[in-house]
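Researcher: Let's try something more involved. This one mixes different molecule types, so please make sure each is placed in the same coordinate frame as the others.
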Amino acid sequence: MQLENKRALVTGGSRGIGHAIVQALASEGADVAFTYERSKERAKEVETTLRSSGRKAFCFQADSASAPAVQASVQQAAEALGGLDILINNAGIYRGGPLEELSLEDLDALLSVNVRSVVLATQQALHHLPNGGRIVNIGSCLADRVAWPGSAVYAMAKSALHGLTRGLARDLGQRCITVNIVHPGPTLTDMTKEEGEFSAMMREHVALKRFSTPEEIAGAVVYLVGPGTSNVTGTALTLDGGLNA
Ligand code: NDP
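Model: All components are placed in one shared frame. Result:
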């Protein structure tokens, strides 16, 4: 129970990697709030399950594309939990294809959900995080190397998070707040399915010839917010099965 008495907010915690992070933090003793966009029923189920295991748990509907919703959700989470020690910026979307076919709506969604919301949630969380607080951003191995066509703007957004991570690590060092980024490779969620032509192509690029599980990504997040990594900041941890090797 390395996170007992810690209070964490995970954005996009109803499904996929975010859900695995919520579960992993709670199983280490943290009380957890998380946001979702559409999966109300699913989010409520997660909340109920966590509460029945003895944790404080709260879910909040908040579209990461909406600045006021993001700001309000951090405030609500801090109030419900009685403070905030850990922020995990996980919510994200993928939109791909040739640049000449990318709509303005998709471009705006990629930037507002994957980048702007992270800045805003962090900005709001800084009013609550104590000295020694932790921030982990969920990036993508595509921030480092884009191994196939059609993902340029998504990769750009995740690279932006990497720059933000480094800059904030520098800014928040005096408060002993660590800021790191986890770069998953293809991971089995609703975003990345086991089957299909695109998945087969991605798997070919992975050295281990398999996709990661959400639990493997969550394990890295727990490591970065745990007591053993208080000197780790401004860095990236890539879990891509060797895709970028
Ligand atoms: P999923 O699509 O499986 O789940 C996304 C989660 O984020 C859900 O909880 C969803 O809520 C929430 N979410 C999506 N859009 C919004 C929004 N506009 N506002 C608030 N919440 C939102 O994604 P993954 O778990 O696969 O991805 C999680 C993170 O990992 C993302 O940042 C993604 O870019 C990154 N990543 C994923 C990889 C993969 O292969 N899966 C690889 C590399 C990086 P709701 O249930 O309500 O829709």
